[in-house]
């Protein structure tokens, strides 16, 4: 496909990097080299405290959203939620290695519908064809008509976004992480100016807060890439199923969202309805007028700017060959884990308020 002025291959043009760089320098005032040192055995890298401090010093935390949007519906909820978080500045949205054209077209159409065509998009190297559960909403839209910059190499886009940022970037990863492991392979120095926040794993419980502990889907779909990510020289934080697997909205909270005139809600609900007609793994499909499905990915977005709602523990984790996340004091890597909710109802109130705010 011939590239238009809106689509850029980062290996052959500086346009994408220029857009990223100018975006950073327009609203950032402090330097990444001032980040304090991590004291858990890794070298000096940005911590959650460093990035949270940006809210006061620079106004916003620059983030990359790495997503398998278009599989489960929670990615779409999480994207709208992210856009409505005043603490976060979305510098890049990178799509998963599978169904790349569909996922990127979905993200591009959604961003266009909510008036955020300024967000750069990047497509993972990998299988690009195929359709997904929200295809009926995507229709015949193709990302080639997107007005913002598009990269055909997600790993390179991630590297450039991190390397050109004057302040630490937070990677919010809510799918398998082949883009992240490839970026680390190409340039391990990105760890000096980034931290990782992911929706991955299950420590003590499985889906729905129940036993048994099972291979969580984002881990199972990319075991080696996540091993590489945990082993990298940066701070890793995750929300496992122990916390994110029990978040859903119903009752008054859901009705408030469903009936809200706030920007993006109409598009979100249209996607939800389209998704429900195609999804096959649910035992019972909820009524889209009264209840959400599990909103796993919103928790990772929240952790990019606050950990006030959850209790964090640093655990030494490894991943076995079936994708089970294990506490392993011998061969594991330190990962900060959101293990319990301090007040889940308060958190649900928080995300309801955010989702019904305007962009």
From TrEMBL:
Keywords: Glycosidase, Hydrolase. GO terms for biological process: purine nucleoside catabolic process. One of its GO terms (molecular function) is purine nucleosidase activity. Gene3D superfamilies: Ribonucleoside hydrolase-like. It is an enzyme of class 3 (hydrolase). Pfam families: IU_nuc_hydro. Residues 63-327 form the Inosine/uridine-preferring nucleoside hydrolase domain. InterPro entries: Inosine/uridine_hydrolase_dom, IUNH, Ribo_hydro-like. GO terms for cellular component: cytosol. The keyword Amino-acid biosynthesis does not apply. Its EC number is 3.2.-.-. This is Pyrimidine-specific ribonucleoside hydrolase RihA. It comes from Novipirellula herctigrandis.
């Amino acid at each position: 496909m011939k590239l238009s002025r809106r689509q850029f291959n980062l290996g052959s043009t500086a346009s994408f990097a220029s857009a990223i760089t100018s975006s950073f320098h327009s609203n950032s005032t402090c330097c990444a080299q001032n980040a304090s040192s991590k004291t858990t055995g890794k070298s000096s890298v940005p911590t959650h405290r460093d990035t949270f401090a940006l809210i006061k010093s620079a106004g916003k935390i620059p983030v990359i959203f790495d997503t398998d949007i278009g599989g489960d519906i929670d990615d779409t909820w999480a994207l709208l939620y992210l856009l409505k978080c005043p603490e976060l500045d979305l510098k890049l949205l990178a799509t998963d290695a599978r169904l790349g054209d569909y996922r990127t077209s979905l993200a591009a159409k959604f961003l266009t519908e909510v008036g955020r065509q300024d967000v750069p998009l990047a497509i993972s190297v990998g299988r690009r064809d195929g359709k997904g559960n929200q295809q009926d909403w995507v229709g015949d839209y193709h990302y080639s008509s997107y007005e913002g910059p598009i990269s055909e190499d997600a790993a390179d886009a991630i590297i450039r976004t991190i390397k050109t940022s004057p302040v630490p970037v937070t990677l919010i990863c809510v799918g398998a992480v082949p883009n992240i492991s490839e970026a680390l392979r190409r340039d391990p120095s990105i760890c000096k100016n980034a931290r990782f926040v992911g929706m991955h794993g299950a420590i003590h419980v499985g889906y729905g807060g129940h036993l048994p502990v099972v291979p969580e889907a984002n881990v199972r779909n990319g075991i080696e890439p996540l091993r590489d990510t945990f082993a990298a020289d940066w701070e890793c934080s995750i929300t496992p199923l122990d916390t994110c697997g029990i978040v859903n909205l119903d009752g008054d909270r859901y009705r408030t969202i469903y009936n809200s005139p706030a920007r993006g809600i109409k598009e979100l609900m249209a996607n939800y309805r389209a998704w429900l007609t195609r999804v096959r793994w649910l035992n019972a499909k909820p009524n889209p007028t009264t209840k959400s499905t599990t909103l796993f990915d919103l928790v990772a977005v929240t952790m990019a700017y606050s950990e006030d709602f959850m209790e964090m523990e640093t655990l030494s984790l490894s991943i076995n060959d079936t994708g089970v996340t294990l506490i392993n004091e011998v061969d594991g890597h330190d990962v900060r884990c959101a293990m319990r909710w301090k007040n889940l109802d308060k958190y649900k109130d928080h995300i309801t308020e955010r989702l019904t705010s305007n962009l």
